[in-house]
Design brief:
Structural class of chain A: alpha/beta
Largest sheet of chain A: 7 strands, mixed
Largest interface: A-B, 43 and 33 residues
Number of helices of chain B: 2
Oligomer: heterodimer
CATH class of chain B: Mainly Beta
Low-confidence stretches of chain A: 603-608
Strand order of the largest sheet of chain A: 2-3-4-1-5-6-8
Number of domains of chain B: 1
Radius of gyration of chain B: 11 Å
Helix content of chain A: 55-70%
Number of strands of chain B: 6
Shape of chain B: globular
Number of helices of chain A: 30
CATH architecture of chain B: Roll
Shape of chain A: elongated
Strand order of the largest sheet of chain B: 1-6-2-3-4-5
Largest sheet of chain B: 6 strands, antiparallel
Mean pLDDT of chain A: 85
Distance between the termini of chain B: 13 Å
Low-confidence stretches of chain B: none
Number of strands of chain A: 10
Strand content of chain B: 35-45%
CATH superfamily of chain B: Ferrous iron transport protein A (FeoA)
Mean pLDDT of chain B: 88
Order of helices and strands of chain B: EEHEEEHE
Helix content of chain B: 10-25%
Chain lengths: ~700, ~80
């Protein structure tokens, strides 16, 4: 994105060190977000100018606790810094972001990175928080000990930014002098032997120091790009040899490093004998209180869902109205014909169906960003962890799953906050089982067709709750099965850092919302748009001259497809007309309502008023005179909708977020297969019992 | 008073010194990397409302873990 002669600076640091806030402060909107090929780790690059107008290229590397990678994020950080990724050049310089108020722990990763030897500047962030705790950090001593410039700063307010930029663009930015502790001789000898073997097989390059094989050896699950199977075997052998040469070598190295850091801290950091109780600690007494903490969480979630379901209704209505009037305008403007129908019924309708979810997605991501930025997200995971552990997940999976009750698309995207790849994948796979808002119109239509007028509102509400409970129960059962049986590899243990609370940066949150909303519009939008046009075409062609819309539909490709699949769905109690509805539902579930309206040639009411369609459904009879929409058929269809994977947007996002179409198809087969089997069981058992 | 116990058994609000933890377990190695090395002082802050996980303070950072991990970490009592 710019001339290659401008230096590439990597921004690195612990999670919660304010790294991304600093990156956003430096680049503003001059940033691009993509994925590293092969893994779903966000790759953010951007650029900024120094005071002297020199261009600097920046890359925001994933937050990590250690170069001994335990997650795809950490593997990406290690590989980029070692120059092991073909898709990303090795950075020329490093901006190392340290949380001053958590200096000792932050120095762990920092000392590993300094030893790599790249020219480095340290951004000593959140210096205000450290000062509030009455810590005294000797900045010049720290700079002397590490051999690199140290700039105290506050990324949230921009204090210290000018000094940092000046250091970043210095032509003579020094290479660090720091070395924690020499490797014990037996460890060194063993790593040296592995290095020679890896060099021979081409897994590492001639210029690689001893550190590169060492970090590869400490990765228990080397999933990084560019390592071939026989090289993986070499690494496994090397690890065995190292374990034999020095049992507990990894733990030994951690201890040696912390011993060196303790000595360093003794020289540069003075902590008061008795620290004042921080604001965070006081707040946590309330927000993590055994009773009040849960209550606050509940109130917060109720408020969030009120916004998503109630407040978003307004803008959603405006969007629908705007597209409807656009449709009317185009209808008036163009002569009747296929092109007009394609534009109005296919394109405009299709885009409207995607954009209408935007208000919910924006609200959801705003709150997710707010929770992450303030530090409440970690508390939410802390409170919910025990509950999620019952099905083998951890607390971080709670919010993505909960979001899926609004829409599985943001739910799947929010699963990025789960660091364990296995938990993240399971969460993505079960997300569509949360009954999303698109199912609501279908549930309402079928419930009103199912129930005579006399049935009280309470019974209907009860069935509604049961449908939601069924989906939730199904999700938990799936999670349990996936966790126990199908997914290989042990779960990473749940270890959660609870960062100090801080004021959110509106800029960072809005950037996140914008990036996620864009990803949704681009990915889901293009797919839904295409599918909408396909479905429109399928229900329009081949054309017949029948004046009756439902006759035309029956003659169309979609109608024929409905007939075609009738033998498959008949055992579930569905006829070919329902079949057309199911096919249409693949674009989005709520399309079922509109499709049924066309099938039965009734005026499509809005979501509030389905009376005409409902009455028509009730009158519909089979050849033998029995009603089509018997209670048993309705229940079978409802259960089908609870479980079936019928959402192309979700499929597109799952493909994007899991990095392959394999899991997308797996999910489709599992969920729709379960839906089919359950509906089959219900209808056949019910019929046998005479319902 | 030099009876050793596990981190999971410590009462809320008490402090202790890490005595030892078994080597070679990935989860425990990560806890070491977060600062829980032998000899370091830890304080038990609280448990989550449902009993787990356990929140501790070590080297100035707040870390939560489950009993499954905490039960493997041996500690000795520290004087206030």
């Amino acid at each position: 994105m710019s001339a290659p002669d401008s230096p590439l600076l990597a921004i690195v640091g612990n999670p919660n060190s304010g790294k991304t806030t600093l990156f956003n402060l430096l680049t503003g909107l001059r940033q691009k977000v993509a994925n590293y090929p092969g893994v779903t780790v966000e790759k953010k690059i951007g650029e900024c100018w120094s005071q002297h107008g020199k261009k600097l290229r920046l890359i925001d590397l994933p937050g990590a606790y250690s170069l001994n990678a335990r997650s795809p994020d950490e593997a990406v950080l290690r590989d980029v810094l070692l120059g092991r990724r073909a898709d990303t050049p090795r950075p020329d310089r490093v901006v190392l972001v340290l949380d001053a108020a958590n200096l000792e722990r932050n120095l762990y990763l920092a000392s590993q990175i300094l030893e790599l030897g790249l020219p480095t500047v340290i951004a000593l962030n959140m210096i205000d928080v450290a000062e509030a705790r009455q810590w005294r950090i000797d900045v010049s001593a720290l700079s002397t000990e590490l051999g690199v410039p140290v700039i105290p700063m506050q990324a949230t307010t921009g204090k210290g930014l000018l000094e940092l930029k000046a250091a970043m663009s210095r032509a003579d930015l020094p290479r660090p002098r720091w070395h924690s502790a020499p490797l014990p001789e037996d460890i060194r000898a063993s790593v040296q032997a592995t290095r020679a073997r890896l060099l021979a097989s081409g897994a590492i390059q001639e210029q690689a120091s001893l550190l590169e094989p060492l970090y590869l050896l400490s990765d228990h699950d080397p999933l990084h790009a560019g390592i071939r199977d026989e090289q993986l075997a070499q690494i496994a052998q090397g690890r065995d040899a190292l374990e034999k040469a020095h049992p507990g070598w990894e733990d030994q190295l951690v201890q040696d490093r912390y011993a060196a850091i303790e000595k360093l801290c003794a020289r540069v950091l003075i902590r008061p004998e008795c620290e004042p109780v921080t604001f965070s600690q006081k707040l946590d007494r309330w927000l993590l209180h055994p009773v009040l903490g849960g209550l606050f969480l509940l109130i917060f979630l109720v408020f969030l869902f009120y916004l998503i379901f109630k407040v978003a209704e307004g803008p959603m209505g405006w969007i629908e109205a705007a597209f409807a009037s656009l449709g009317t305008w185009v209808t008036g403007l163009m002569p009747p014909g296929d092109l007009r129908d394609l534009l109005v019924d296919g394109a405009i309708n299709g885009v409207s169906g995607v954009v209408v979810f935007l208000p919910q997605i924006l609200i959801l991501f705003f709150f997710i960003g707010l929770m992450e930025d303030t530090g409440y997200m970690a508390r939410l995971a802390f409170i919910m962890d025990r509950l999620m552990s019952l099905v083998g997940l951890n607390g971080k999976a709670f919010l993505p799953f909960l979001s899926s009750y609004a829409c599985a698309v943001p739910g799947v995207m929010a699963a990025r906050t789960i660091d364990s790849p296995k938990d993240r994948l399971i969460t993505i796979l079960i997300a569509p089982l949360a009954s999303c808002s698109a199912r609501l119109p279908v549930y309402l239509l079928l419930l009103s067709a199912l129930m005579p007028e006399s049935v009280s509102l309470w019974v209907k509400a009860g069935i509604m709750v049961a449908l939601y409970a069924l989906g939730t129960f199904g999700a938990f059962v799936f999670a349990w099965i996936l966790n126990k049986g199908i997914m290989r590899g042990a779960s990473a243990p749940m270890i959660l850092e609870m960062p100090a609370y801080r004021l959110p940066s509106l800029r960072s949150i809005l950037l996140l919302v914008w990036q996620r909303a864009r990803a949704f519009l681009v990915r889901a939008g293009t797919v839904i748009f295409g599918i909408s046009i396909l479905i429109w075409a399928a229900s329009t062609y081949p054309k017949s001259d029948s004046p009756d819309a439902s006759m035309r539909l029956e003659q169309s490709l979609a109608g024929r497809a409905g007939h075609l699949i009738e033998p498959i769905i008949a055992p579930l109690g569905f006829d070919w007309k329902i079949g057309i509805g199911l096919i249409g539902s693949f674009a989005a579930r709520e399309v079922f309502v509109n499709t049924m309206a066309v099938v039965y040639a009734v005026e499509a009411g809005d979501e509030e008023d389905m009376t005409p369609l409902r009455d028509r459904l009730r009158q519909e009879t089979r050849a033998d005179g029995r009603p089509v929409y018997r209670p048993l058929v309705c229940i079978s269809l409802l259960v089908f909708y609870v479980f079936a994977m019928q959402c192309v947007s979700t499929m597109a996002i799952v493909r994007r977020e899991t990095g392959s179409s394999r899991w997308m198809w797996f999910q489709l087969a599992c969920l729709s297969g379960t839906a089919y089997i359950l509906s089959l069981l219900i209808y056949q058992t019910g019929s046998a019992l005479g319902y | 008073m030099h009876r050793s116990s596990t981190l999971a058994q410590l009462p809320i609000g008490s402090s202790a010194l890490i005595h030892s933890m078994p080597t070679g377990r990935a989860g425990l190695t990560r806890l070491r990397e977060l600062g829980l090395t032998p000899g370091v002082r830890v304080k038990v802050i609280r448990r989550a409302p449902l009993g787990e996980p356990l929140q501790i303070c070590v080297r100035g950072s707040q870390i939560a873990m489950r009993n499954h991990e905490a039960a493997h970490i041996l500690v000795t009592p520290a004087e206030a």
